[in-house]
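$ ./design --mode recover --in tokens.txt
reading tokens...
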């Protein structure tokens, strides 16, 4: 079989390519050569925040990052990279930005495929303000999902189970819900660069998703813009992964279980979301107010990676061990520093030498 595929690593690679103006990234890429502004909507902000911290964006040449709906000032001589959903509101806002001449150079990146009517509306609004020269490139990025870990992603569809099983949901709404799931899964496959063997049961929502996804993949292979063509003749194409799609109704009990693993308890007790935990404001033993604090957990946190799936009592023991080790290390560093200071002072290189004392 093929090697381990990290959806998070692949997602970061796609994001880096987008920040490099959709050029390939390699060891020769200079991120400080072209400074840029990053414009996003709420959904794409969440995608970025699970992969990059602010320092990571700066390292990739992003000097300013702003919400598309915020009041933004005109900035000349800098490129603006837009990463937004292909919605009517976002298309309208981009047209207004172009008309206002906010940026000299605009690179538009849609989180998923933009509909032809929306693309036509954008072209019309840009032509009306004669802003064609500002729009440099337009890309469908196929990144409309969140990579929460190397093996975990989310399509961030609220109340999806209810929407798929509510008997009062109309056919049009059901079509919309199914298409959202299919488009999200298609984006994950494009990001990973794999064409899976799809397996699903018959006669339920999972079957509808599987059949629709299979058709979307087949139609895509026949298009001129085949995003999988680089994988067609690679060694990995002979070891295709299996994509198993099942309905949540097949295993409802999981939703009712409250495990006492570290990760599950953070979700249940502190409402962990987007790999972040917020500890609410509180009062300390001395009566002083302790402000709310946000902790960023995820693949970059070694303690989290080692302990997220362990039972909570085991994790508390791990914390005690880590704390004891840290205290010992801190004491050793302090003792070593004090010994160096005494030796330095004895050799005439201490405070008296700096202050001119006798």
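writing sequence...
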């Amino acid at each position: 079989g093929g090697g381990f595929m990290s959806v998070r690593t692949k997602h970061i690679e796609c994001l880096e390519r987008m920040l490099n103006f959709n050029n390939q990234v390699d060891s020769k890429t200079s991120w400080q050569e072209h400074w840029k502004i990053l414009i996003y909507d709420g959904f794409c902000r969440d995608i970025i925040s699970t992969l990059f911290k602010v320092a990571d964006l700066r390292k990739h040449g992003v000097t300013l990052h702003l919400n598309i709906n915020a009041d933004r000032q005109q900035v000349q001589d800098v490129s603006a990279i837009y990463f937004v959903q292909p919605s009517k509101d976002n298309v309208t806002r981009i047209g207004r930005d172009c008309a206002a001449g906010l940026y000299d150079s605009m690179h538009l990146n849609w989180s998923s495929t933009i509909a032809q009517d929306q693309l036509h509306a954008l072209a019309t609004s840009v032509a009306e303000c004669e802003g064609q020269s500002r729009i440099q490139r337009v890309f469908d990025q196929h990144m409309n999902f969140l990579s929460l870990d190397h093996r975990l992603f989310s399509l961030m569809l609220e109340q999806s189970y209810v929407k798929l099983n509510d008997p009062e949901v109309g056919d049009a709404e059901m079509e919309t819900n199914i298409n959202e799931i299919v488009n999200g899964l298609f984006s994950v496959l494009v990001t990973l660069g794999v064409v899976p063997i799809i397996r699903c049961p018959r006669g339920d929502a999972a079957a509808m998703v599987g059949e629709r996804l299979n058709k979307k993949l087949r139609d895509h292979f026949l298009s001129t813009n085949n995003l999988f063509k680089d994988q067609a003749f690679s060694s990995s194409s002979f070891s295709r992964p299996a994509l198993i799609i099942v309905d949540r109704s097949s295993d409802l009990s999981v939703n009712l279980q409250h495990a006492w693993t570290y990760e599950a308890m953070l979700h249940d007790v502190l409402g962990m979301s987007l790999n972040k935990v917020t500890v609410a404001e509180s009062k300390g033993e001395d009566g002083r107010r302790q402000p709310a604090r946000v902790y960023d957990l995820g693949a970059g946190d070694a303690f989290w990676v080692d302990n997220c799936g362990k039972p909570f009592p085991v994790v508390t023991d791990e914390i005690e061990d880590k704390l004891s080790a840290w205290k010992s290390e801190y004491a050793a560093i302090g003792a070593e520093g004090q010994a160096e200071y005494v030796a330095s002072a004895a050799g005439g290189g201490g405070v008296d030498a700096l202050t001119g004392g006798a």
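exit 0
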